[in-house]
């Protein structure tokens, strides 16, 4: 099973993906985590993307597509992939479909976590204090939310047209969102 966890920044995608890794033997493929690891390692890639990420803008499609491609074999060897924070643009979504098709696989389900903007902003205010993530500050978060609305939300019709989109209420507590996700996965 290959699953996309879809939603705006701070919707809870990472939290829910980590839970599914434990309960379903799947691999979490978070491009945000991969890019942060590249920055932490001091690599050339990390140097290229750190300013872009800090401002809350999207890094180029080519970079994230390549990062994902490198990790697909690992996900296949497990119970499948949970794509978290990828795809974020139409070219990324099309590239993902092509990469999977080339390996005889496909996206099975796109789970959209619905959380309203006010709830996202108050979540992020709390997270900034704890996470220390440089892009959780209010200015960068506004840019990230805007990138989601302008470049990522337009993917919803793409997946709806493929009849893969399922919406889950992401406003509740972590456990109740998890239960709603399980219901959708087992349906
Ligand atoms: P995330 O942890 O998913 O919120 O991602 C953190 C940041 O990494 C984003 O604000 C972007 O700068 C960058 N990033 C992560 N995934 C992608 C992607 N699929 N496309 C473009 N930029 C990405």
Distance between the amino and carboxyl termini:
13 Å
CATH superfamily: P-loop containing nucleotide triphosphate hydrolases
* The number of domains: 1
Mean pLDDT: 95
Based on secondary structure, the structural category is: alpha/beta
Supply the number of helical segments.
Answer: 9
CATH architecture: 3-Layer(aba) Sandwich
- The third-level CATH topology is Rossmann fold
What's the level 1 CATH class?
Alpha Beta
How would you characterize the overall build of this protein?
The protein has 187 residues and is an alpha/beta fold. The protein has one domain: Rossmann fold. It has a five-stranded parallel β-sheet with strand order 2-3-1-4-5. α2 packs across α3 and α4 runs parallel beside α5. The longest helix is centred in the middle third of the chain and has 17 residues. The protein starts with a strand and ends with a helix. The mean pLDDT is 95. The structure holds adenosine monophosphate. The site of adenosine monophosphate (AMP) has 17 residues, from α2 and α3.
